[in-house]
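Researcher: Going back to the complex we discussed earlier. I've cleaned up the inputs and rechecked each line, so this should be the final set. Can you rerun the prediction on the complete assembly and write out the structure?
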Amino acid sequence: MNMPALSTGFALSVAAYVAGAFASLACWRKPVLARRICCSAALAGAGLGGLTSVLGILRGTPVAWSVPSGVPLFAYSFSYDALAGFFNLALAIPVAAVSIYSFGYLKAFEGKRNIGLFGFLFHLVLLSLTITFTAANAFLFLIAWEVMALAAYGLVTFYHEDRETRRSGLLYVIMAHIDAGCLLLGFALLINASGSAEFASFRPLAAQLNSGQQTAAFILFFLGFAIKAGVIPFHVWLPAAHPVAPSNVSALLSGIVIKTGIYGMARIFLDVLGGVPPWAGLLVLLVGVVSAVLGVLYALMEHDLKRLLAYHSIENIGIILMGLGAALIFRVAGHPMLAAVALVAAMFHTLNHAIFKSLLFLGAGSVLHSTGTRNMEEMGGLIRPMPVTAFCFLIGAIAISGLPPLNGFASEWLTYQTLLAGFGAISGLRRILFPLAGSMLALTGALAAACFVKAFGITFLALPRGAKSRNVHEAPRTMLIGMGWLTLSCAALGLGATWFLPVFDAMTEQLLGQRVAANLVTGHGLVLSAGMRTSGTVSPLVIAVGLIVLMVPAALLVAIGVKRFGRKRGPVWDCGLPGLSEENEYTATAFSKALRMIFSVLYKPRREIQAVFDVSPYFPKEIHFESEIEPTFEKRLYAPLQEFIFRVSSRMRTIQAGSIHAYLAYIFVTLVLLLLFGVRK
Amino acid sequence: MTEVLINSALQLVLLLLVAPLLSGMIKALKARLQTRRGPGILQSYRDILKLLRKGMVIPETASWIFSAAPYMVFGTATLVGLMIPMTTTHAPFSLFGGVLAVVYLLALGRFFLALGGLDTGSSFGGLGSSREMTISAIAEPAMMLAIFTVALGANSTNLSEMAKVAVGQSWRFLAPSQMLAFAALFIVLIAETGRIPVDNLATHLELTMIHEAMILEYSGPYLALIEWGASIKQLVLMTLLVNTFFPFGLSSDWTLQTIGVGLAFYLVKLLVLACMIVLVETSNAKLRLFRVPELLMVAFILGALALISTFLF
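Model: Rerun complete. Updated structure for the full complex:
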């Protein structure tokens, strides 16, 4: 019925991104024009894409297009189903905000940076994301995947004059290619078995693949998507690459680009591959737990605001994987209904994270824009000059900490209920893993709250800690509107979670044959329910209203007291110590000190204090303090790996002599070998 | 609807009145056990009334977060109080949030209080916030694990449902899993309410403060709200312990008699738990901050054992 509308909408949004890419590149000499074209085309594309996704989700049944390319195995095949629609929605909401935000943000680039090139790369990322989410041909998927990686590389290294940025970009592009290589091999395995590269041709394979092939396919795809999603221990590129990009790009990268890994897992494991090994779900769940806990622990040690946020992306990917892993376990164990609830929890958190993480990165971008530093130790007191940014960041911080009544709470609550239900549904001793995973989710949530008390408190509260945060100004209006849109979305998806859940029905029906939204809502549509096995309920909306109602009498009491007995502003008491200055304020490093000591097994902290004094060591003139934690994964895993690769490459150099005769001989030998072994027919 | 409102109003009154009484009782008992005369059991009411009638000084460096925190602490604690069954198995807000909402709402209050501590710029505030968030983060997994053990037995995370199941099996607390879970939750209760050996509410000694350091800059009605909120939070956590593990006296129907009996039983149970807390407080010295995680690790392991022993019994 709405198929023509859907195709038109999809084509138009793709066209908007293509036009945006080339139009902004064409106008690169006119920065103002390029900026306007870039942002308005992105807004138009996101708007159209968002509307299309709503149509796609409402429709339920997939819409497919295919244009043959003439090249064997490759065709421009698209399939717009509920899963594609959902991820396009998760793309459209943050992109709309980022493009409005960029109207103001990119102004600073005018005359300094090539906005045309920026727009080209930016639109290329959006285009390839849209295609990745809808591609139904392995090669089309891989091409979109690769374009996304390369265009994102261009954006990550946009400040290429900085050495750290170039190094981070290099790390990113290497990891992106390892993941693309894994996916290529995985698809090669499937193509070899089916003789076609269409996703549709892979679906009947489930029965044919033997367990070895199934395991190999699962491992290859899992590796590929896990690297993309930044799952520990493949995460090292993420906290390096995301912070160095311009902030609007960081929002896009952390908000939605890493979610392509989640999309890939959902698409391949639940849809295309048909069956996964029985231990697959357990592996995903455990990897999720490790990523969540370690991600937040590393985030706590950061005082670079954007790196801190990047580590939280790892944490949240972990939370999503807990839900996804549970869904895989339940499906294998024959509980499609529970699997559907778990999938809803995972996908809801995917969308929620896309929203609050973009919001937080945009907030950090505004702070960076005004102060010129990412170092939290130089910030402080920004809530006074930047009240709107501070408010939006606070809402994002509450949402990401999973605190009620915002959206993060709603999806984490569903994840908890899923894990608890797992205990009842799965037999054997391994079911104890579910409540244990739940307790680790609790640890993650509480540590995230601690981390965001630090991030918000040190950045926005108290006195400025450095000259850079003294004469700052609020961000331009367009940037505030972009953040405001995401702030509203956080509130709406939290308070209105019960009204939003039917969105998942088409997806769970398509992937698992179950519609669960009706089971997840009770109490006149106001209360979230856990489904069937456990009967937990919660209502974010009533919680919000209840909080406000209960605060009214408290406010009255205070108002009466203030009216009768007065209220005045005075200097900070501070246990009677006069003269508070920025030098004796608490810092981000100090705030996380207790946790650094408690988890010192993990961090292996090192510190060095040098005091310079004249007469007595009790009266130092100067103190030099240095503190760092050991980057365990970089040092223990990646450094030896890098060394090994360098050693092997230096051996390989002997056969790369640069002599044309030698190369001709190589070609000849290869040809003979191929003729001998490759062509068997 | 009207029933919910009446029920809520009654429970709210009970909550607001019993919470300071309980704090006062603990203080009086502690003084008695330490052979001091101590304040009367009504002292907490007097403190709150006194604070409400004082002028307020707000630090020059503070922003609106500082003023929002007391309301959040008070609001979350009272809202949580409505989700917990007190004198009957039926809690007025049970449908709108179970034990997960309770834990996360308390975390919301703590989130704002910790921000309030940082907001003034005083190092003591930052110190308190840092320690409070650290200890609560480490207490959280133990708390959840112990709660999960009970929730999985009742097949629900809703406290009314849990209480109903508990009433059906009044002597279940003798099961090893229940006792272990109770022990885990008791340790968490000590940590969450800032009692010795984790924190000491009675001290203003700089190096040992946690909760008190965070609220150092608050005065007048704001301080009253925070103190009141903290005592309600303590009452809520203690109620959680006594009513899920020892459901004696809870009934599911609504008559004047059952409420009266429920209230009497409830107060007695609270008094017993308060005695336990006082005994622990008096017979222990405060732990060094970095020994507290070990105590909480014990709680976590007890929780895990509780869970494992549900397989066995």
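Model: Worth noting: Residues 8 and 92 of chain B are 5 Å apart (CA to CA).
Researcher: Good, that matches what I expected from the previous run.
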